[in-house]
Design a protein that fits this description.
alpha+beta, 16% strand
Length: 79
């Protein structure tokens, strides 16, 4: 068994369960071409595409990801 594969899937399910807990609908694409999950807000029909990353490295030793607020706010076309 490959531990890294298990860790990655555990991270996927942890992220998806958090969205489900908060009332969103979550779907997993049949073919992974970059998106790991889709999160849907049912009332408005808004959808977000997610790519999920997981690590078991202690928080103080992990890298930093730099994202601008604008990058997080931009609405991207779902293709």
């Amino acid at each position: 068994m490959e531990k890294r594969s298990h860790l990655g899937m555990a991270g996927h399910y942890a992220a998806m369960s958090e969205f489900l807990y908060r009332g969103y609908n979550v779907a997993v694409p049949a073919v992974d071409v970059g998106d790991d999950a889709y999160v849907v807000e049912d009332q408005m029909g808004t959808m977000w595409r997610l790519q999920i990353k997981t690590t078991d490295t202690p928080q103080e030793k992990t890298g930093t990801y730099l994202l601008s607020r604008q990058q997080l706010r931009d609405i991207k076309k779902n293709e």
